Amino acid sequence: MRVELSHTPEMTSRIAELQERDGYVSDISLALRYRPELFGEPVSAYFQEVMKGPSDWSEAERELFAAFVSKLNQCPF
């Protein structure tokens, strides 16, 4: 059995656009775009709920927390 490990041509084009615009494309961005119906869409919906859903913290505070953790992990997010 062969497992396809490449993005669709459309997604490859989008990734190239992101690379040109930002200078890099993170691994999580690549993972979200690989077979988005299986991983990217459900995880993105979850991220949206975590970042924008009901919480004792404001959206801005949650964004700040995410940016701080990314910085600690040396992630260019």
Structural account:
With 77 residues, the protein is an all-alpha fold. It has one domain (9-72). The chain contains four helices and no strands. It is globular, with a radius of gyration of 15 Å. The chain starts with 8 loop residues before the first helix and ends in a 5-residue tail after the last helix. The mean pLDDT is 89.
Cα separation of the termini: 36 Å
SSE topology string: HHHH
Q: Rg from C-alpha positions?
A: 15 Å
Task: Estimate the global geometry from the Cα principal axes.
Answer: globular
Number of helices: 4
Strand content: under 5%
**Nearest-integer average pLDDT:** 89
Helix content: 55-70%
Task: Give a short account of the largest sheet.
Answer: none
Query: How many DSSP-defined strands?
Result: 0
Q: What are the segments in which pLDDT stays under 50 over at least 5 consecutive residues?
A: none
Question: Structural class, from helix and strand content?
Answer: mainly alpha
